Amino acid sequence: LQLRPALVKAVQRDEITAVFQPIIDLSDGRIVEVETLARWTHSGEAIPPDYFVPLAGRAGVLSEFTDLMLGKACAALHRWSVLPGGEHTRISVNLPPALVVDPELPGRVARILRQEGIAPARLTLELTEDALVDDPATAKSVTGRLEELGVELSVDDFGKGYSSLLSLRQIALHAVKIDRAFVANLDQDREAERFLNALLVMGRELELAVTAEGVERPEQARILMALGCHRAQGNLFSPPLPAAELGALLASGG
Ligand code: G
Ligand code: G
Ligand code: MN
Ligand code: NA
């Protein structure tokens, strides 16, 4: 398998692309934030990020890849900002676990924000719970410096990982994104509703913004609203889109 050198080349040549999926405020239908997702097509085949992001880590190009994604995210946000409805939109970028313990990350994030002219408060970095478990001291220091920079931090796939509540306590967290496994059966199964509600109660108590992921059907959105979860992401609202199409969606009022 020659995917590894191909990926290294793709990163060096800036051939990884970004698509963008909106996060909606269910109470008014507006786009409050947009998540950046990486796409790589190799020999005509779409390679899933679940596969190529870890591969970028093994190939030694994880920082370069992540810097590219941050740059694309900020550049897109800059362009959307001049559109009606785009000026308050925020952007989120996924952070690979290994970079949560990279002491050089905060400096690079600061430089990219400056270069693209984006206020730090408009960027959310999504990290997973397991990123905090292996080396909590370094993770605490890196996330602390990101927090000082003014960037927001969100825990992705919430409820799915090791769920180390203790390590979550160590970092200045602004938001959680409830894993789509908790949303999937929401309209079929009362037990699913109770689990989701328990996560929402935790989010509320900890004063975190809570986003439900993977919303595909109107009935799921209705139940989320009834449970008091107003932020949602999923194909019901929009699949991940190229920057220009997401811009058009923003301009049309979300
Ligand atoms: O659309 P989806 O198949 O994009 O994403 C699958 C997984 O890959 C998700 O868990 C997502 O967080 C991760 N992912 C997608 N894009 C990126 C990225 O730019 N960086 C990192 N670290 N992970 C990503
Ligand atoms: O980083 P994270 O794991 O949150 O990445 C979001 C993932 O969820 C991406 O793979 C994205 O393509 C996927 N996704 C977005 N909307 C939906 C949806 O409505 N249903 C499902 N099954 N997946 C979705
Ligand atoms: Mn994510
Ligand atoms: Na997720």
UniProtKB/TrEMBL annotation:
Lineage: superkingdom: Bacteria
Domain EAL: 1-254
Full protein name: EAL domain-containing protein
UniProt lineage: Bacteria, Bacillati, Actinomycetota, Actinomycetes, Nakamurellales
Shown residues within the full chain: 507 to 760 of 776
